[in-house]
Every structure is written in structure tokens, then in C-alpha cells.
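Exercise 7b. C-alpha cells:
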């Protein structure tokens, strides 16, 4: 059985809901279907604060039904494949959905099983992760119970949603240890698959000072391949001298893991994907490079910028403007600059608000140096942005 809709949106997260809301604000008569199997909708940017004991995990969860815009038909199913030549989407229940225009906003896939032993030990043995609603509270349990020993914080070798999250929790932990008089007893180490701490030099300079303050040891170009929870050790593979791989087993008392991430399988294996598996769109118009009636934004898009909610807030209006222009046979005037933002929590009551574009050039909102740690920016992150998300961003008004 096949049902046709003028506009279909795949994905009911921040990006999909924002686009649906903005489209209806432009034209209430639009017929839109949104495909997503999820029961719940999460405000994930707060999970770092949950892991630091500064936010209630329950306040980050709402029913998906409560955020679907009125007038949008919700198809609560999983997508299995795309047929862009025939404007058709296949669903897990065996039915298909046809479209005139398609917006793909399916998010990013967390590949927990890529790291041997990780799934089995997560949530126990001192192994925690803020990338899981179920396990984020355990992060604070690990931090608050540690009085001495080694704390490892990991960043994978893949793109991740919220690129700052793997080290933000490390800064909160260091601040917690300091406030409770145990910092000198704890060896904090950062093991990262990246080549540096942060891509934008202006902000990295501050973060390196924060690392000095916490006496944090930095290890780069290291890929996590195995976690042995009961033995409390993790195996990394790095590139040593002569370009040879070197294995290192690192013991820990607590370890925060960020899972390797990638495009959802049903996108990666589809005709929509680029060589890396993400939706292949023009980086300025967000229109697919081969299929003109398809647009994409958010984490599943192949845009060469950090995968953040702040980026989506700037991408959504561009998709809406260009989609409506295309429906009216007009030129696509919407232009995305690659803007993204990363509110880098550096301690309790301290935050560096990094904002930058495709060229890693700062694009700051406020009339002061945002590379400085500020209480005001922490207040923005902790109190204002969650309200803004539920009340304004998802409703298309921000």
C-alpha cells in the first residue's frame, strides 16, 4: 500500500520538527507527513549537565506526540529504504510513502557495538556515557564517588553530535574534584581520536588553559577499540613512530565513553548518500546534489560543520525558504554559512560560547569576547536554552 503526500519529512528530532513547524507558519494549508518511530523526544544538550549532577534527566524527556506540530500527519514507522527516482520511501511495516518533496533529518547513529565490550559494561564498572538517556545519571555517580585514582574521558575517531560533549564532562569532573578537595588525588586523562582539542584556535586556547588547571593529560590520534569493564582497562590503537599502529592498554577507575557515530544505516545504503554515507547536499542551499526535490539538514546531512542543535537552528530556515521557493518555481535564495555553536561548559558556573562558520572563523552573537569563561553564558546554557528549545525552536518561532 502506498500513500502520497506533497511534503514528507523523515526524522522527528530537532531538525524535522523545526522544519515542519516553520513550514506551517509560512503556509497552514501545506500537507505534511513526518516519519519517525520514536515514542519519546529528548533535549540532549542537557545530558552533559545531567552527567555533572546539575540537571534532572526527567526534564529532558517528553512524549514525541507532544512535539508533533498540529496539522502534521505522524507516521510512526521506521524507514528502510529510499527510491528517489520514483519519489518513494519504503517502511518497515511493508507499506510505502510517496512524496513530491522530501526533507531528510534522520539524525546520527550511535554505534556502541563498534567498541568491543562497551555495551556489556556500560552503566557499571565505572564505565559511563552522557550519550545515553538511560546511563547519563550514572556519570555523576561515578564522578561523585571517585576520591582517588584515574579518570579517563574519551572522544572517538568519528564525527559526533555535539563535538564538545566528550570533553565538557571532563571539565565539570575536574571542577567537581577540585571543589571536593580530591583533584590532587585523581589523574585525569583525555584520549581522543582527533588531532587536537578543538578546531577553532581562539576557543582552543582557553580550553588548553582549563586542561592545565585540571592537570589533564591529553592524548590524541587514539582510537578506542575495547573496554574490559571488570578488569577496569581500555585498549586504544594509535599511530606511533614510522606510521606503525601501537596498542595501549590504559587502566581506569572511571571512564566516560563517547560511542563512535555515523550515518543511519538506511541512509548510508541509499542512493541519497555521499561517499561517507551522509545525505549528499549542497552546503549552502541544503538541496540534494542529484535529486532536486530533496533537502537535508541536521546530523544526517553531509554538511562539513559540527553536528549541533545550534547549527540546525540556522539550517532550518534555509531549508524552508528554499523548499517553498522550489514549490513556486523560484530561484533558491536561502544560504547557509556553516554556522554552528558549541556551549563549552568549563566548570560549574563557567562556559565558553564557541560560535563559528565553515571556515572555523568565529561568528559571535554577543558584544564581548566569547572565548572567555563566563557565568552569564553558563546561565544561558543551564536555564535559557532548554526553555528556548521546547517553547520556541520546536514550534518554529526561533
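Sequence design result:
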Amino acid at each position: 500500500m502506498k500513500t502520497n503526500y506533497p511534503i514528507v519529512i523523515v526524522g522527528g528530532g530537532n531538525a524535522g520538527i523545526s522544519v515542519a513547524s516553520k513550514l506551517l507558519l509560512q503556509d497552514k494549508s501545506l500537507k505534511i507527513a513526518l516519519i519517525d518511530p520514536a515514542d519519546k523526544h529528548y533535549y540532549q544538550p542537557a545530558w552533559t549537565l545531567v552527567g555533572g549532577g546539575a540537571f534532572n534527566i526527567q526534564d529532558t524527556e517528553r512524549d514525541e506526540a507532544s512535539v508533533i506540530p498540529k496539522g502534521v500527519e505522524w507516521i510512526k514507522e521506521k524507514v528502510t529504504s529510499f527510491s528517489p527516482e520514483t519519489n518513494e520511501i519504503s517502511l518497515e511495516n511493508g507499506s510505502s510513502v510517496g512524496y513530491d518533496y522530501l526533507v531528510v533529518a534522520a539524525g546520527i547513529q550511535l554505534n556502541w557495538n563498534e567498541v568491543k565490550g562497551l555495551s556489556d559494561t556500560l552503566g557499571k564498572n565505572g564505565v559511563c556515557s552522557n550519550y545515553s538517556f538511560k546511563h547519563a545519571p550514572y556519570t555523576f555517580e561515578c564522578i561523585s564517588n571517585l576520591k582517588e585514582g584515574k579518570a579517563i574521558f574519551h572522544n572517538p575517531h568519528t564525527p559526533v553530535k555535539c563535538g564538545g560533549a566528550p570533553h565538557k564532562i571532563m571539565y565539570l569532573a575536574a571542577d567537581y574534584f577540585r571543589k571536593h578537595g580530591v583533584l590532587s588525588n585523581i589523574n585525569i586523562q583525555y584520549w581522543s581520536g582527533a588531532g587536537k582539542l578543538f578546531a577553532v584556535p581562539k576557543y582552543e586556547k582557553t580550553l588548553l588553559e582549563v586542561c592545565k588547571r585540571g592537570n589533564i593529560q591529553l592524548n590524541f590520534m587514539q582510537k578506542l577499540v575495547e573496554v574490559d569493564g571488570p578488569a577496569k582497562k581500555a585498549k586504544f590503537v594509535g599511530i606511533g613512530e614510522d606510521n606503525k599502529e601501537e596498542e595501549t592498554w590504559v587502566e581506569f577507575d572511571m571512564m566516560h565513553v563517547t560511542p563512535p557515530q555515523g550515518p543511519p544505516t538506511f541512509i548510508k545504503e541509499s542512493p541519497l548518500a555521499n561517499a561517507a554515507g551522509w545525505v549528499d547536499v549542497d552546503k549552502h542551499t541544503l538541496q540534494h546534489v542529484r535529486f532536486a526535490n530533496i533537502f537535508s539538514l541536521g546530523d544526517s546531512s553531509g554538511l562539513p560543520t559540527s553536528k549541533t542543535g545550534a547549527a540546525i537552528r540556522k539550517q532550518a530556515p534555509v531549508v524552508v525558504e528554499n523548499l517553498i521557493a522550489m514549490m513556486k518555481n523560484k530561484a533558491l535564495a536561502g544560504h547557509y554559512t556553516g554556522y554552528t555553536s558549541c556551549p563549552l561548559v568549563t566548570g560549574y558556573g563557567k562556559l565558553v560560547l564557541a560560535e563559528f562558520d565553515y571556515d572555523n572563523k568565529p561568528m559571535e552573537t554577543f558584544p564581548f569576547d566569547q572565548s572567555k569563561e563566563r557565568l552569564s553564558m553558563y546561565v544561558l546554557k543551564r536555564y535559557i536554552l532548554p526553555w528556548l528549545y521546547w517553547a520556541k525552536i520546536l514550534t518554529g518561532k526561533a
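Instructor comment: Residues 112-261 form a domain with the FAD/NAD(P)-binding domain fold (CATH 3.50.50.60). The two ends are 38 Å apart (CA to CA).
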